[in-house]
Amino acid sequence: MTDEIKTIPAEGKDRLDEAGLSEWMAANVAGFTGPLTYAKFAGGQSNPTYRLDSPSGAYVLRRKPYGPLLPSAHAVDREYRLIAGLHPTGFPVAKPYGLCTDERVIGAMFYVMGLADGRNLWDGTLPDYAPAERTAVYEAMCDTLADLHNVDYAAAGLGDYGKPGNYFTRQVERWTRQYRASETETMPEVERLIDFLPRTVPEQTRTSIVHGDYRIDNMIFANAEPKVIAVLDWELSTLGDPLADFSYFLMSWVTEPEGRSGVLGRTGPATGIPTIADMTRRYCARTGRDDVPDLNWYFAFNLFRLTGIVQGIKKRIVEGTASSAQAEKSASGVYRLAAASWGFAELAGA
Fold it and tell me: CB atoms < 10 A from the CB of 176, how many?
């Protein structure tokens, strides 16, 4: 495993209009001086992401994909608003520099933020780390998530960033719509989930900012200590039930180690990776909870949502707009996700 954040040359349809971007940066990014060079970050971002380098420093640009898109997907303007709201609170996000809604500049809406210089960890088993180091990394992730859920979102100017109640009801409806809009075939497990989930939504007792995709590879850690210095990829963020984020974070514990976030079978004192019970105790202590409810419904929902996301990637492959060479491989996982989701629904009483 490498902690280095890899970039690749931007080629073909991934290229940016350098002149247009430089002109926009000069007019909108405080302190920017050209010329700039850029490269695309490797990995499967839903919103293509680039490293920009110039005499004034390093920046990150995230843009919408080119081509036809689902109406509510790839909302980089929402991402930017969230980062701009969180940054002054001290929560670890990259510094926001500017949002461009004029698609004429580079062909798609985009925003620019500071580069968080640190480690990006992809393999949740942390194979190159000692047990005590693994424990510290996981405790930092858990604490950072708890801190997000403790943020006073109204004071951060995000009181209308999402609707405060009925989060899971709305999310089940949303991802059902997204799935239907991207549907390429009938999958029996998904049809059963679309019937089961809305009938069994658990009660929501708290509202917070939720990240929506909180896992180890969506954050940057300090180079020399187990500290999260930037949480990345806020595309799916909203106001909602914090248990959505916490249960999604815990999905790694019920996912086979696959070189990404999965740590099933790798937890406990021998490896230093905390157990679900360890993480639950720590999260509850930091957020003032007594406990969390049975997680099987939440696991079923999270996998249903992932099924909808991956089905969207599959549809974009069909239409030729997918942004990553990994997209085709990802899309083949839709059947596995749907089956796993239904398995947890059965554990939840379906």
Answer: 17
Q: Answer yes or no: do 109 and 142 share one domain.
A: no
| Alpha carbon distances (Å) from 294 to 21, 174, 203, 298 | 49, 23, 12, 8
Output the pTM of the full model. 0.86
- The CATH number of residue 169's host domain is 3.90.1200.10
**What is the rounded distance in angstroms from the CA atom of residue 308 to the CA atom of residue 315?**
10
**pLDDT tens-digit profile of 113-131?**
999 999 999 999 999 999 9
For the record, the structure tokens of 43 come out as: 């990995």
The model's pLDDT over 180-228, given as tens digits with 9 standing for 90+, comes to 999 888 899 999 999 999 999 999 999 999 999 999 999 999 999 999 9
In this structure, the answer to whether residues 150 and 295 fall within a common structural domain is yes
Give a yes or no: residue 50 inside a domain: yes
User: Are the beta carbons of 245 and 141 closer than 8 angstroms?
Assistant: no
Paired residues of 228 in beta bridges = 221
Give CA separation, 152 vs 89, 158, 209, in Å.
9, 9, 9
- Report the C-alpha gap between 160 and 148 in whole angstroms: 17
* Structural domain includes residue 124: no
CA 189 vs CA 142, 302, 313, 338, 344: distances in Å: 32, 14, 19, 6, 11
Residues in contact with 44: Cβ distance below 8 Å, sequence separation at least 6, in sequence order: 323, 324, 326, 327, 330
Q: List the CATH number of the domain containing 35.
A: 3.30.200.20
* Alpha carbons 155 and 165: distance in angstroms, whole number: 18
Q: Is 1 contained in some domain?
A: no
The proportion of the chain whose per-residue pLDDT surpasses 90, expressed as a percent, equals 77
Q: Is residue 122 part of a domain?
A: no
**Phi/psi of residue 143, nearest 5 degrees:** -65, -40
Q: Which domain holds residue 55?
A: 7-114
Handedness of CA 217, 223, 228, 230 (dihedral sign): negative
What beta strand segments (E) does 42-121 contain?
Answer: 49-54, 57-63, 96-100, 110-114
Which residues have C-beta within 8 Å of that of residue 53, sequence separation ≥ 6?
36, 37, 38, 59
Q: Is 163 left (phi over 0), alpha (psi -120 to 50) or beta?
A: beta
